[in-house]
Amino acid sequence: MRDDCIFCKIANGEIPSATLYEDEDFRVILDLGPASKGHALILPKEHYKDLCELDDAVAAKVLPLAGKMGRAMKKALHFDGFNLVQNNGEAAGQTVMHFHMHMIPRYANGPQMVLWNPGKLDDTEKTEIIEKVKKELE
Ligand code: AMP
Ligand code: ZN
């Protein structure tokens, strides 16, 4: 746990939060600036800056927990779908540098969000990307 990390303090109960769920490894809280009704954050109790630092055993529990929360929240709040959003790095919009997964409920006829303009995959770029990434994975 980091003394200078607000999500460490929230996840470990040092700072009170609107908690929906807690277990040994995680706390799930309501986001203070919700994108929609029920917007929640899954916070590991251990500090990891982002997905690239996340421990594999902890990572393996994130999606099952998101599924469990999604099922319960859908029944409770009657939303029609939800997005999982997980920002890594400032350029990607990460503002709190403690790994967290957003669960954003979506309501039929609700506002548009989590969108991008599709480009076109360029053939030269495609080859270059595949070569470079595969090399890093070796
Ligand atoms: P991100 O931009 O992915 O780093 O998301 C950080 C999220 O944390 C934002 O949606 C904020 O509204 C939310 N947030 C920041 N501080 C708090 C807090 N003290 N309690 C609940 N949510 C928070
Ligand atoms: Zn932290």
Keywords:
138 residues, alpha+beta, 5-stranded antiparallel sheet, 3 helices, binds adenosine monophosphate, binds zinc ion
Structure description:
This protein has 138 residues and is of the alpha+beta class. The chain contains three helices and five strands. The protein has helices at 6-11, 56-77, 123-137; strands spanning 19-22, 26-30, 40-44, 81-85, 101-106. It has a five-stranded antiparallel β-sheet with strand order 1-2-3-5-4. The protein is globular and about 50 Å long. The model has no long low-confidence stretch (mean pLDDT 97). Bound molecules: adenosine monophosphate and zinc ion. Zinc ion binds at residues 2, 5, 7-8, 47, 98.
Secondary-structure topology with pairs:
Layout: H1 6-11, E1 19-22, E2 26-30, E3 40-44, H2 56-77, E4 81-85, E5 101-106, H3 123-137
Antiparallel strand pairs: 1-2, 2-3, 3-5, 4-5
The structure holds adenosine monophosphate and zinc ion.
Zinc ion (ZN) is lined by residues 2, 5, 7-8, 47, 98.
Helix proportion: 25-40%
Order of helices and strands: HEEEHEEH
Number of strands: 5
Q: Tell me the number of helical segments per DSSP (H or I, 4 or more residues long).
A: 3
Average pLDDT for all residues: 97
Structural class from helices and strands?
Answer: alpha+beta
Distance between the termini: 33 Å
Largest sheet strand order? 1-2-3-5-4
Low-confidence stretches: none
Shape: globular
